[in-house]
Structures are given as structure tokens and as C-alpha cells.
Specification:
Length: 239
Amino acid sequence: MESIFVSLLTVAPEAMDISIGSLLSKASPVVQGVLVVLVLMSLASWYIIAYKWLYLRRAQAESGTFLETFWQSKRLDEIYQTSEHLKYSPVSQVFRAGYVELTKLKSGSPGDTMHGQMGDLESIERALRRAQNTEQIHLESMVGFLATTASSAPFVGLFGTVWGIMASFISIAREGDASLLTVAPGIAEALIATAIGLVAAIPAVVAYNWAMTRMRVLEADMENFGNDFLNIVKRHFFK
């Protein structure tokens, strides 16, 4: 009995070493590859989250400053000079595109007929629309990766889970032993893969929803400002 007890003391610590570090070092290449992919996706997501948080926050603040300046000022050239210092504001960029197009038309030979005026207005409207589309694409850049991470990371982790469980069953069949020491490492690997998949996905989906909400506000501001600017141009420049 004493020899058996001594044998258990010498074997059990190594056999029961299922710490996270030990499991990761002893995991199969497939599971390790899954974990590497998930960690890279998580790191990339956090970089995008930090960048977009700073960028959208500044874009919204500068857009508010620009709109306040626009409605308080009565000279478009002064507003244009102010917009040069608000490059993060998508609304100011829409204004700059419309102002440049308006300047080109007024410095050239604008149409005196109704048809010519309508053509000039359409040119300004197209310039505003192009600027809105450009700024919208810029706002949405990299956000798609957050959606990809949110939707795919759990499935990548699930793949690691399935592989870990499959490895446990293979170990049982090979050793003919269904004890906890046989199945625990594979199951633990599977749970780690699932956990990291969720760790990567949850912040990504939360950040994606937050970013989309902020971007919708900025896109609505651009749309409303474009319509207001076009109406002002109609009243003051194309009577």
C-alpha cells in the first residue's frame, strides 16, 4: 500500500498538470494554429476599435464645430478657410467639394438660361454626392473587419473545440483508457479555443454596433448639410 501511495505522489503532479500554459505548449498543431489566428484577429480588432473610437470622436466633434461656424458665418470663403483646419469632419469635406465646384462655375461662364442654371446646379449636386460617398467609404474603412471577427471568431474557436474533443476520443481509443487524465487535456484545449473565440468576438460585435451608430449620425449630418447647402446656392447664386 505504501509503495502505491508513493507511486501516485510521483506521477500525479505531472499527470495532472493542466495549467493553461502547459496545455498551450502541448496542444496539437491544429489547435495552436487556431489559437494563433484568434489572437491575431483579437489584436487587430482592438487596434481598429481604438483607432475608430478616436477618429469618430474627433470627426463628430469637428463636424459640430463646422456646422456651428457655417450657420453663424455669412461668407463662404471664411467658412472654407475654417474648414481647412477641420479635416477630420466629413461634413466640412462635403462643403469643400461643393464650394470648389461653385467657385469653378462662378469664375467661368455660368449659363444664363434656365437650362444652363439647372446644369450648374446638377454639377454642384454631383460634387456634393461624390464627396458624401468618399467620406462614407472613409468612415466605414476597417469596420468590416470587426463584423468579420464578430461573425467568424466563434466558429474558428468551435473548430478548435471540435478538434480538441476529437483528439480526446482518439486518445481514448489508442490507450484504451477513458479516465480523466486521458480526456482532460483534449477537453481543456477545446474549452480554451472556445473561450478565446468568444473573447475575440464579443468586443468586436459591441464595437461594430457602436461604430455603425456613430457613422449613421455622421452620414445623416452629411446628407442634411448637402441638401441645405444646395438650397442656399439656389437662393443666392441661381435666382
